[in-house]
Design goal:
18 strands, Quinone Oxidoreductase, Chain A, domain 1, binds zinc ion, ADH-like_C, alpha/beta, seven-stranded mixed β-sheet, globular, six-stranded parallel β-sheet, 348 residues, Rossmann fold
């Protein structure tokens, strides 16, 4: 079969690889859609020390079971499925607390196991046994279902932010992840949802979603006053950083209201992970800062259920689809801000 194989920085050729073959306990999926993640883009541009090439990337997918050597599984040949991509090989205090995203005993699809930028993907026996496959029970398009994985990562942050009716929320970053955060805030009843970005094109796309305001981030810092004005001078109760930039992290601390909750959803580039932040904002404003990494199985389940409910605008978040052979075009579309989510269709 032809797969997009990561060989190193800026090397993602679509090349012939051996068809996957199954051992006991495994399943084979025919991949209908795999959306391109910001981390795929980052791996392509900068490499990733955690990924040992050659490796087939792609971890946000929907596929059909075409072969099974797991007869005891409730998932059967013909089922259309999505997958929680964290595989847990042992237990510890994090696994026992339901936070398998934090355990050292984990491996991940597209990092340690081949992913879904290919017409077929093998599901490891451990994932089948742990119930990581979830069956689609309606006819929602595969592109929409593929978004369950990144939406689950957003759910992980929200499971600790506790956004509700009393909250005003600002999201820095109008990419697909920022839009997902803003939409989740709205669905949880936030009074006001504001999205900021330094790319006017992204803000234009963001206005297609149910937001109260969009704010252009400017080099002179005037966007900070704009957010203060929009929130009656108090600043937002919750600020989520969905761009990988220290300037955005600083903006979050500056614009947050007193006693605000700030989530650094996006990390910084692994090559430059330190930043100068005005930590006195945390002190004087009594801010609560949290991070967010990957997702718990409960987050994935919740994201999948929300997409299934039809109340989440997954169809508006997927703006482009491409055949596998044109996967590198997806990166340009994402970087320019022309696309939100790009879905790859490996069967084409
Ligand atoms: Zn992802």
């Amino acid at each position: 079969m032809k797969a997009a194989v990561y060989l190193g920085k800026e090397q993602l050729p679509v090349q012939t690889v051996a068809d996957p073959t199954l051992d006991d306990g495994e399943m084979l999926l025919a991949i209908d859609s795999c959306s391109v993640c910001g981390t795929d883009l980052r791996t392509y541009r900068h490499g990733d020390a955690k990924i040992k090439p050659p490796r087939i990337l792609g971890h946000e997918f929907c596929g059909r079971v075409v072969e099974s050597r797991a007869p005891d599984s409730p998932i059967k040949v013909g089922d259309r499925v999505v997958m929680y991509i964290v595989l847990v090989s042992g237990t510890d205090r994090y696994v026992e607390a339901g936070r398998a995203n934090l355990t050292a005993n984990r491996t991940t699809i597209s990092y340690h196991h081949d992913g879904a930028f290919a017409p077929f993907m093998k599901v490891p026996a451990l994932a089948v046994r742990q119930g990581n496959l979830f069956k689609a029970t309606n006819d929602l398009p595969s592109d929409h279902l593929s978004v369950a994985e990144p939406l689950g990562c957003c759910m992980n942050a929200h499971s600790r932010l506790g956004i509700g009716l009393k909250d005003t929320v600002a999201v820095i970053g109008a990419g697909p992840i920022g839009i997902m955060h803003a939409t989740l805030a709205r669905l949880q009843g936030a009074q006001q949802v504001i999205v900021l970005d330094n790319n006017p094109r992204r803000l234009e796309m963001a206005r297609a979603f149910d937001l109260d305001a969009t704010v252009l981030v400017k080099p002179d810092g005037s966007h900070r006053e704009e957010v203060a004005r929009l929130t009656g001078g108090f600043g937002p109760d919750v600020v989520i950083v969905a761009v990988s930039a220290a300037a955005a992290q600083n903006d979050a601390l500056e614009i947050a209201g007193k006693a605000g909750r700030v989530n650094f959803f996006a990390g910084l580039p692994k090559s430059a992970p330190t930043a100068t932040l005005n930590v006195n904002t945390i002190h004087y404003k009594e801010l609560e800062i949290s991070g967010s990494y990957s997702e718990k199985k409960s987050d994935f389940q919740a994201a999948f259920a929300l997409i299934n409910s039809g109340r989440f605008p997954a169809g508006k978040i997927v703006t482009h689809t491409l055949p596998l052979a044109r996967i590198e075009e997806a990166f340009g579309l994402m970087e320019s801000g022309e696309a939100l989510k790009v879905c790859i269709h490996p069967q084409l």
